[in-house]
Amino acid sequence: MAAGRLVNQNQLTMNYNDFINNKILEVTNNGFDWSDFHPNTFPHQADTVRWALKGGCRAIFSSFGLGKTIVQLEIAKAVTNHTGQPFLIGLPLGVVGEFKYDAHNILGLEVHYTTDKDHCAQIQSGYDSPQIFLSNYDRIREGAFDCAVFGGCSFDEGDVIRNLDTKTSDYIINQTNVIKHRFIATATPAPNEYTEILNYAHFLGVCDRGQALTRFFKRDSSKAGNLTLHAHKEDEFWVWVRSWAIFLEKPSDLGYSDEGYQLPKINVHYHEVGNIERDIKTDRDGNVVMYSDASKSLQDAAREKRESLFARAEKAMDLIEKEPKKHFIIWHDLENERKALEALMKGKNYKSVYGSQKNDIKEEYLNGFKNGEYQYLLTKPSIAGSGCNFQKHCADAIFLGIGWKFKDFIQAIHRIQRFRQYKAVNIHLIYTDAELKILKDLERKWKQHDEMCLRMTKLMRKYGLDHSGNIEILKRSTAIERKEYAGEDFKLIRNDAVVELAGRKSNSIQLFVSSFPFSDQYEYCELYQDFGHNNGNDEFFKQCDFLVPEMYRTLEPGRIAAIHVKNRIQFSYQNGVGFTSLIDFRGQVVRNFEKHGFFLLGEHYIVTDVVRENNQTYRLGWTENSKDGTKMGAGSPEYLLIFRKPPTDTSNAYADIPVTKSKEKYSRGRWQLDAHSLWRSNGHRMLNPDELRKYDLGKIGKWWKDYLRNSPYEFNEHVKLCEQLDGMGKLPSSFMAMAPWVHLQNDMVWDDVNRMKTLNASQALKKKEQHVCPLQFDIIDRTIERYSNPGELIYDPFGGIGSTVLRSVTLGRKGESTELHDLYWADSCQYLREFAYKRSVPTLFDVSA
Questions:
Q1: Which of 177, 184, 196, 241 has the fewest Cβ atoms nearer than 10 Å?
Q2: pLDDT at site 814
Q3: Is there a single domain that holds both residue 194 and residue 327?
Q4: In the prediction, which pLDDT does 288 show?
Q5: Are both 624 and 512 inside the same structural domain?
Q6: Which among 129, 127, 97, 130 is positioned nearest to 113, based on CA atoms?
Q7: Do 217 and 228 meet the contact criterion of CB atoms below 8 Å apart?
Q8: What pLDDT was estimated at residue 744?
Q9: For each successive 10 residues of the chain (849 residues), what is the average pLDDT?
Q10: Distance from the first to the final alpha carbon of the chain
Q11: Which helix (H) or strand (E) holds 341?
Q12: Helices (H) and strands (E) in the chain — how many of each?
């Protein structure tokens, strides 16, 4: 190799290493120092404020009763002094009074409740210094404020933005990002409420939600929004969260005395009531069953609650009558439950707080109960379960029913079980026998919640408030142990494709065939060299800027790089417009390859199953299309992009070593099909274990394919048959039973979103993300046969489990690949070993024949 090439290779490696190191997720401080605290502020509160202000944008996960109100008010005071701009605190119902009281009586601060930007400006005009404003989430949700005027904001009980699909979440996340200093203050997040935590990180500007998704989570490719934290990333995830969020369970977590901060004893009382309306137990289809189970579906749970309503209300009244001097909160979820309770509460000193009341009435009643003016409060956790402090006069709560929403449940409990509650707390759970599974699930989540709090407390005690010690944990090793498995005509390399290609001779590869990663949509392994481990498309293509030039250099002049891609889905929370759209990933790949010298010769379209795609993305739904067809686009095909490196001699445009074919063996008919832009696949590929267990095309699909082989296609008849199937309840919602196969002749489409896996893959592999778009055997075969000569070298920089190499040696070529994922690489080695033994691995067609 020439000396100049070695210099360039060393320079590339050095620059590439810098790029990889810059991927490391590091949380930086962007705030300011502060030490001017009111004497009434407790030490643990002052430390929390100092930490949050130094960070600039931080989350405060502080247990119930530790003083989040004081902390937010001290933060507001500091930010108004530092920035010279007002501060906005967003609050749930019933909390404004507490903030006003603590501000005036504990900290000596003046705060103002305001309703919109004009009211805010009117109040501010009466003061020379910036003021602290309080407002209700209802007002904030309407976009009634000009966020640009505020120097800081804080959102009390920050779970108001825990969901993606609410107007409040959209506004706060997308509009308040112009405010420099942003804070969230809430109790410890519920276990497995990962969307909530990622929303906090996104709102605070710590990390883009999509970046965190690809870094830490396995997403269910068959169901949108279903997140599972990778087991091998669990420790890293929580250490990362700890770097931008403080977790406080007690003052002793920061080294202070816990005097006055012992939680009261909690007694949970279980009350199972009979459902007298349910004489015969049936499922939702009317079939008689031995045991009813309200956990099977939302419909079953709702029906059980309706039928047992009066039995549960009477049980609640029985509990109240046994303790006539106690104050009670009765939590319920349904309006009919409230009305039934009110009918039984006549003559008692109670108030009901419900959704259609005016906000000032709700706040009056909530504050009245807090101050002991009413003995009983009837309300929903969704209304008063967050922020309100009722412990002064109340230590008893009744849940008129139970449900799946653990966050609402635990928040409601801690309205009375909190620090400075001096009585034992009694929680009464009323349920029916059909809700036992729901109860068990609630108890499981409660246990997980306690375990997570303990875990965060240990991290807090270990690292304190200085998160710099966390950084080394977050810096995963970038060193890769290169491995190689070789046999006759093949070589499988475990390494970074950029590094591996940089060490190869120029013009030494005759054909590239590869399915490219889809930008930052999926992270395939924990190493930062993973192309999926990037923050957005721009960073992904920056990494491509290291790879594609090496592909160009090592490809023989005049030869082809065949790249398999698919356009990416961009969900409404990503594009900010409220509907799902597409990213032209195909076009971006084309531009990147052209940027580095390749020319686009053509592209083949590989049609996919629109029903399966909708189940992955929810963007093509029949129901939504019925409401407004303008929201629905079209199914996204796969593309095989054909790029060419110019030959040395461009006078006749032939490759330096042409790919020649005998007309006797390569027919005119074959040429016409190969040249066509539409390529269809028979779907043949390596079979994963789940398919071995459940694969069954069914009689309907077989009949339909046989019918179309011998009959002309008629669209209206096709629609009619699908409608008839739907009317019989036999039209699947998860795949197309009657796909438009007519133009395929004897071929069959199989669009499987799962990553290809070997039969002997270890159980640990299930924890890894699945590939969303595997490349089928016949697509690889047609590409190899069309664009290479026998005996030539085919290379795949993203080898996966070895499909390209396997097909290359099967077709009389040589195959090489690089793969970063150690387990994927091991799987590819196993497949090639089995190829040496006549490919004993069962494939899709082996079991479907």
A1: 177
A2: 96
A3: no
A4: 47
A5: yes
A6: 97
A7: yes
A8: 40
A9: 44 75 79 95 94 94 86 97 95 79 92 89 90 85 83 82 62 83 82 76 84 69 61 75 85 86 88 66 50 52 76 93 94 90 92 88 89 94 82 93 80 84 91 82 82 73 62 60 92 95 96 88 75 82 95 97 88 69 90 96 80 60 74 79 95 92 82 76 54 43 58 59 62 59 39 29 33 70 94 95 92 95 85 68 47
A10: 52
A11: helix 335-344
A12: 32, 25
Question: Are 220 and 365 contained in the same domain?
Answer: no
Rounded Cα distance between 250 and 266, Å, is: 17
How far is C-alpha 640 from the geometric centre of its chain's CA atoms? Answer: 29
CATH code: domain of residue 382: 3.40.50.300
Domain hosting residue 637, numbered range: 483-644+682-694+747-848
Distance CA 390, CA 376 (A): 11
**Residue 224 is encoded by which pair of tokens?**
């949108």
Comparing CA positions, the residue from 526, 532, 522 lying closest to residue 218 is 522
Number of residues written out for the chain? 849
Phi, psi values for residue 203, rounded to 5°: -60, -40
Q: Assess if residue 488 is contained within a domain.
A: yes
Q: What pLDDT score was predicted for residue 612?
A: 61
Count other C-beta atoms under 10 Å from residue 63's C-beta.
20
Does residue 57 share a domain with residue 197? yes
Given phi > 0 = left and psi -120 to 50 = alpha, else beta, which region is 717? alpha
Is residue 330 within 8 Å of residue 400, measured between CB atoms? Answer: yes
412 and 279, same structural domain?
yes
Query: Is-contact 738 671, C-beta < 8 A?
Result: no
Number of other CB atoms surrounding residue 102 within 10 Å: 18
Question: Is residue 278 in a domain?
Answer: yes
pLDDT (0 to 100) of residue 757: 29
Place of tokens 């190869």: 504
Q: Which of 632, 637, 633 lies closest to 608 in space, CA to CA?
A: 637
* CB proximity list for 838: less than 8 A, separation 6 or greater: none
Tokens of 780: 């690889």
Largest CA distance in the chain: 101
Cβ atoms of 756 and 774 within 8 Å: the answer is yes
Q: CA 129 to CA 53: how far, in whole Å? A: 20
- Quote the tokens at residue 540: 């992904």
**At 563, which helix (H) or strand (E)?**
strand 555-566
